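anyone seen this seq b4? input:
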Amino acid sequence: MKDTVLVTGASRGIGMATARLFAAQGHPVALNYNHSRESAFAAAREINAAGGMALAVKADVSRSDEVAAMFDAVRGQLGPVGILVNNAAVARQCLFTEIPHHEWRETFAVNVDGMFLCSQIALREMLRAHRGSIVNVSSMWGQVGASCEVLYSATKAAVIGLTKALAQEVGPSGIRVNCVAPGVIDTDMNAHLREEDLDALRNDTPLMRLGTSADIAEAIYFLCSDKASFITGQVLGANGGFVVS
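predicted toks r here
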């Protein structure tokens, strides 16, 4: 049987597209959600009806007790997690001087602490097995920063640092850790943007379009596949050329 995959923030957008892609390739998949129960369960039912194996499991990834319970549930029903996709995140836009301290801490708790908690538990099994793959979802704003998105950019930059350092640490144990840094993606997270703003972002992207959840899912799948067996500690910029590093 192929490795069990846990995708955090899988009730919509990039996370859901990623879970569906892994399931289509024969992997048992756990779809983590926090608030969007209906969509996560609907996706799991769809995968199971198509002959796959899927489990929707609730957890606030910023809470260590809920993360531990989630991994216990996944292990009990699908087996130990061999591939972890840390995708859950929140975003807020405002001037730096107007960010309340509690929002700063809450955003870091989900976007960074969540990756720490999930990765730490996943690695217990991976280290015993001497194999495994972790992909963290960052953002191009974590690479270059964005005005009025200092908080989001800071969390996503932290994700990149976490990825590179952890890859060095667990590489000798046969575990790969990589990062995808999406550009502007047509998801609910960007639904608040005005159409003229989206048009401007399209025009600033050399490929002249917004990315899709499927685009990022394919990048994540590649990094977890045997085709990327000699790739670790890397940041794959899936941004249509918006940022060139």
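The radius of gyration is 17 Å. The longest strand covers residues 175-182. kinda curious what u guys think
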